[in-house]
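hey so u asked for the seq, here:
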Amino acid sequence: MAAPGMVQEMSDFLQHYPPFDQLGAEALRQLSAQVKLQFVPEGERLFAQGQRPLPHFFVVKKGSIRLLQDQSRLLDICDEGDVFGIRAVIGADDYLADALADEDSLLCLVPNEGFRAIIQQHPEVALYMAAGFASGVSVFKPEAFAETHKAQRAWQSKTRFQRQFNPVETIQVALRRTPVTCAPQTSIQAAAALMSHHNVGSILITDDQGLPLGILTDSDLRRKVVANPQAIKTAAVSTVMSSPVRTVKPQLSTAELTQAMMRYKITHLCVTTDGTPQTAALGIISQRDVLTAQGSSPALLVKEMLQTQEVAALAALRDKAAELVEGYVYQDLPMGFVSQVITEINDVLIQQAIRIAQTEMQAQGLPLPQLDFCFLALGSEGRKEQLLRTDQDSALIYQDPPPEEAEAVHQRFLALGQRIVAILEACGFERCRADMMASNPKWCASVSQWQQYFSQWVLSPSPAAVMQTTIFFDFRPIAGEEALADQLKQYIFALLDKQEVFLNFLAKNALQNPPPLSFFRNFIVEKGGDHKDAFDIKARAMMPLTDAARVLTYDQRLPGYGSTQDRFLWIATHVPALKDLAEASAMAYEILMRMRARHGFAHQDSGRYIHPENLNKLERQTLRNIFKTIEKLQQTLESRYRLAYFG
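ran it, structure tokens below
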């Protein structure tokens, strides 16, 4: 039996590393009493690929262990605190890799049987095991990322954001009282009297069966009725009600209610039996109800943005939005929801910036030409992924003018683009260093000019042309005539039909950022410059996924404008052969978005450059799993587009 001092020393060491950090002091002490130490000299083999499992697995105490598959392919290098050779705990599978000491090493030998007992008694450790961490082999399971996400949530300590924000509390719409209603023929005056009598801010207009037809709010009364007092006594409430009424089902979370209010830009929702207007009304949820339960409201921010004409006010509201999103991120809300919230806020901010710019131009005698135009977001905002205020990427497309007016029209729309970019800069969005913005004369162009750009890029592909498409293929309409953007996308699809080989070029470009193998030594950090010794999470982890998703969705002619995660989930549904890989990639990207956002908020920057010493062990192991998924994805692209035979 190990001496008490040795047991305590082993316990002190293991408690810093997952999954042992999930154990209580007594459970960790009992396990530590069973652990043995083994010195392994440099070059010694611990086990071989295909070998039956040993009765124990390993934890690196000092040194490093190299894991090789087929005797040459490096899978990973495990350093202090890393777990490997653990497959025997999960099942009786043979080892899938060789394990060799990369240097003189000291290892902890943890008995399989003793650890199985730990798993049975501690569900949080079972979650860690399900994620397939530190197995030392290329484990590829989409469900592993779901468990990884759960494990991440368990790992994080309580923060001030978890105390301040509670956006997923369910509002019980079981409704403390019956909703105040009236018939559509009720006069406006009588409806207002009912609202006053019941002290409510809205009244539901229903038919004989109690089905909702519309809603009248305090706001409606101010905007639609006060200006016409003669009609109050005689006019029917149906003439001023908001219709159709927006309905939701009972017991939605505040996050879902917030999402609905933002989508429809309203402050009241009608709750019905099944969430549709075809069933009886149960009650009304107001923005005030959501605010009370949630403590903050993106819907309110959107409403305030729509009402302001001051750039300084817009900037202040965007600051509030950043605080809200920070709370959401630390609450571990689904990143799909978080990105949708901030995308809606950013879109409204841009739309309001456009209105302000147009108003200024009009006041200066510079009205826009009577031609349709559309402001396009590019890059992360184009993909609905701009959680942090990074630099601007945008473009502007407008209807073809008569040839004799082309230059004058271009100058007028360019002036608009320049004002919009300036307003967004004042709101904290830096200018793009590469000048990929609507303020650049090249990227403020007519429909025919944009078609010419894409024709040149797709029909005559070159490295520079392919690079341009990686930026402009991610466009998304923000304001103006959306049909112009839709037409441009269909034009691109037609070009791809003519020049299918372009996708091979795009796929080859997607392999330019191979994933790092692991977090060891200085292999994956920047070697110099302002970010020396930092890990570039955007270039080395997120871009490979973004690039692959772009190739696959343009290959499949995906309609609409989705995020990288949306694209992978769409591929999972429409391309059965890629289902598992696409689902794993979607989950991997969600994890990376959260990781980047957290580090960005913590350091008040873009979150792009992360110093490895700031990552906890679980984050490092999560990244390792993601690197393997990226490797699998890039291998799939190489095979699918036959890149081994392609220039």
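The longest helix spans residues 335-363. Residues 131-176 have pLDDT under 50 and may be disordered.
lmk if thats what u needed
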